[in-house]
C-alpha cells in the first residue's frame, strides 16, 4: 500500500521559513517523479514544484521561484520543500504527490498517481 506522509507545516510570520517533508512508502520511490501542490480555502489546487525521479530536473510555479526549493533523497524515500521568504498568500494546505510516468506535465495534478493527506501552512502578516 502506497503512503505519502507530509510533515513540517505550521504557523509562521511573513518573511519566515518552513521545511516540508514527504515520506513515501510502498513504492519504488526512485522511479517516481514527485510534486508539491497546494490548495487555499476557496481556491483551486495549484502546482508548486516538482522534481524528476533522478533529481536532475526541477520545476517551480512562477509565484514561488527564488523562494522555494524542492529536493529529494532517494535513499530515504523523502522529498523536501524548503520554503523561504514566506508570504501570507502562501497560506494553504500543501500536498505531496507521486507520478510513476516519467516526463509527465509536472503541473497537471491528474498525472499524479498517489497523494498525501496534506499539511497546513499558515503565514501571518
Task: Describe, in plain words, how this protein is organized in 3D.
- With 125 residues, the protein is an all-beta fold.
- 0% of the residues lie in helices and 49% in strands.
- The chain contains no helices and eleven strands.
- It has strands spanning 3-7, 10-13, 18-25, 33-39, 46-51, 58-60, 68-73, 78-83, 92-99, 114-115, 119-124.
- Strands 2, 4, 5, 6, 9, 10 and 11 form a seven-stranded mixed sheet that branches. Strands 1-3-8-7 form a four-stranded antiparallel sheet, with no helix packed on it.
- Strand 5 (46-51) and strand 6 form a beta hairpin.
- It starts with a strand and ends with a strand.
- The relative contact order is 0.31.
- The model has no long low-confidence stretch (mean pLDDT 96).
Radius of gyration, Cα only, in angstroms? 13 Å
Helix/strand structural class: mainly beta
Q: What is the typical, i.e. mean, pLDDT? A: 96
The level of helicity is under 10%
In short:
With 125 residues, the protein is an all-beta fold. Helices cover 0% and strands 49% of the residues.
Provide keyphrases for this structure.
about 120 residues; mainly beta; seven-stranded mixed sheet
Ordered list of secondary-structure elements with their pairings:
Elements: E1 3-7, E2 10-13, E3 18-25, E4 33-39, E5 46-51, E6 58-60, E7 68-73, E8 78-83, E9 92-99, E10 114-115, E11 119-124
Parallel strand pairs: 2-11
Antiparallel strand pairs: 1-3, 3-8, 4-5, 4-9, 5-6, 7-8, 9-10, 9-11
